[in-house]
Amino acid sequence: MRKRKQKEQNALSAAISYFRQKKNLSLEQVCEGLCSVATLSRIEQGKRSADSLLGTLLLERIGKEAEQLELLQNDEDYALWKRRRYIQDLMQQKQYQKIYQELALYRGMKQTTPDLHQQFCLYQEVLIELALLSEQEKIDYKEEVCENILIKVLKALRLTKPAFGKDGAPPKQLYTQTEIELIQILTHYSTPDFYKSQNIGGNVGFAEEKRVELLQILEYIEYFYTEHRKEEIGVSITIELAELERTFGNYAKAIEYLEKGISFVSQGRGIKSLEKLHFLKAQALFAQLGAEHADTEKRKEIQRECLMAYCTCEVCGLTESAKKIEVFCREKMEWQITELEM
Amino acid sequence: MANYRVGDVIRLTRKAAGITQEQLSDGICSVETLSRIENGKHAVKRETYSQLMAKMGRDTSRCYALCMSKDMELLEERIWLEDALSKFDYREADRYLSILKRKIADTPMNQQYIARIEGLLDYRNKRIDAEEWIKREENAIRLTVPEYEKYLFIEKKEDAFPFTELEILTLMSLANAYSVNEQPDIAIRIYDALLLGLEEEYMDFISVRKLRMVINFNYIRSLEQQDKYQEALDKGKKLLENAIKFDYGRMIPMALVAIVWDMNKIIEKDSNANEILEIKRKLRQAYYIAAARNDNYNVNIIKNYYRSCYGEEV
């Protein structure tokens, strides 16, 4: 009898069970907020199949992605999965109205794990609201609107991380991609007042709480993730940490994080945020320069960073960012970037 | 790795095998059930799926994770191997492949994976010539599709055979081998068949998109071999556009260099100063983007190319 069950263990369940045990993780750690221990145990044994969202999230917690497995899905599950992919694709193309329509359809479809699907939908809404906000006003966010978004972020996050920001949350956390991105949004847009009003952080204070959250995630990413995923998810965390250190004047530390981010991109396949990383690095190097303004070697290094950022912007059509780099070079470095280009 | 839609995979496999729903369902399920399965209206049972696919000589497991069966650890080693390949580090790739070979379970799919990469590495590390590489890739694809040639002469996408991602990569390798063996016409026929097949939506579009970009990159080389520079240039521009749109940064410097190369070929006879400036500018962009990604392989290629074209440093 036992043997027959074993035989039915599929790629997904085998992967979850293998990697969980390899990384010495308990069932509780992996399934926290996603499903019950009993359910995870049955999934691992192949006695129960996970729908593609639950399967993906479980794999993500242990640092793997379903992408690495070839999955043939039921049509029902495939339909949900396909619609999620479609929504993510629309997001890339900034077709927000269409996404709202798709989300309405998605919410109406049959789901076996409603909380997880609800988190997916809320997260998409948050992404749209943030995008619209930054389109209207350049990050000069209207506090009222922003607070509503942050409350939604927290609601989404606590669907799978009920103890987030509360005392007694376990220190060694595992994260899904969505959880990481939600936390990143929270740390990026929150004000000290918001943290206080939501009772996040307790006594350690706003900045320190942010740093701790981000460092925990970075540590998790570095330990669990493959190169490809470090790029996809880790880069924004390194940028966030670098910005935080920069506001404290810790330029060396900021550069360290940025270089980590650059190495994440170079080990991966993409180009997203690459211009940001190099431009931030140029700025941090410049700030570090201080009195040694005339150091030609250092100036060259900064110029090279600017050129890398600038070319990336030009090719990828990021004209706004390109202009910023140009201005920085002209005003701070007293150097014309386009002149050197041609 | 790709995701596939069960119904479409069954339907396309059946059509490619040239059998009717009646013939396929006979003794397994009713014709009506098969029809509903193919249309995605009926969830197929694992047992039924296995029986149907076995009857058509295809892999029967519903979740086909490559390289697993014996040892999940290999999943990670496989990622390292593919990372090394993506950085053109063929020596490093050699090392990972030999580890993988020792540990991998003996299934046709795994063997195909190994054979494809072994062929590529043996050729790149100069242990075999192009003709031998062609033979290796042919043997590799035959492990799972013995009569693969049959499926390369399709005219309509509906007649496409639902190759798995792995099979597509193997066929692309085969085409690349033909290309380096100075047979670009055969290479192009294979690329065309693969691109046409990808239009049929049995596989998720993220995988399809990546595969398309990689196939098109190789396609450009074959067009250049046939001196079709304008066509190659158009494809290169499209490729660059997609690489930017879909965040495939690794491809961007390579696409830019291909564009520059074709532009240089086209204007060879009559070039004006503006065009030369434009080309130089593109090469510098390619250089700095490659540098921004710590992509030393392409940095060096561009540096040398720039020097050979203009007699100066980037």
Question: Can you give a write-up of this model?
Answer:
The complex is a heterodimer of chains A (342) and B (314). Chain A has 342 residues and is mostly helical. Chain A is globular, with a radius of gyration of 22 Å. Chain A is 71% helix and 1% strand. Chain A has helices spanning 2-7, 11-22, 27-31, 37-44, 52-61, 75-92, 96-108, 114-136, 143-160, 177-189, 192-197, 206-224, 227-247, 251-267, 274-289, 296-316, 319-331, 337-341; one strand at 71-73. With 314 residues, chain B is mostly helical. Chain B is built from 15 helices and 1 strand; from the N terminus they run βααααααααααααααα. The longest helix of chain B is centred in the last third of the chain and has 21 residues, at 205-225.
Task: Using brief descriptors, characterize the structure shown.
heterodimer, A: 342 residues, mainly alpha, 18 helices, 1% strand, globular, disordered N terminus, B: 314 residues
Kindly summarize this structure in a few lines:
Chain A has helices at residues 2-7, 11-22, 27-31, 37-44, 52-61, 75-92, 96-108, 114-136, 143-160, 177-189, 192-197, 206-224, 227-247, 251-267, 274-289, 296-316, 319-331, 337-341; one strand at 71-73. Chain A is mostly helical.
Oligomer: heterodimer
How many angstroms does the end-to-end distance of chain A come to?
74 Å
User: Could you state the order of secondary-structure elements of chain A as H and E?
Assistant: HHHHHEHHHHHHHHHHHHH
Helix content of chain B: 55-70%
Biggest sheet of chain A, open or closed, and with what strands and sense? Answer: none
Q: Strand percentage of chain B, roughly?
A: under 5%
Shape of chain A: globular
Find the biggest chain interface: A-B, 56 and 57 residues
Termini gap of chain B: 38 Å
SSE succession of chain B: EHHHHHHHHHHHHHHH
SS content category of chain A: mainly alpha
**Low-confidence segments of chain B, ≥5 residues, pLDDT <50?**
64-70
Total number of β-strand segments of chain B? Answer: 1
What number is the mean pLDDT of chain B? 87
Rg from Cα of chain A: 22 Å
What general form of chain B does the structure show?
A: globular
Low-confidence stretches of chain A: 1-8
Helix content of chain A: over 70%
Give the number of helices of chain B: 15
What is the alpha-carbon Rg of chain B in Å? 22 Å
Query: Structural class from helices and strands of chain B?
Result: mainly alpha
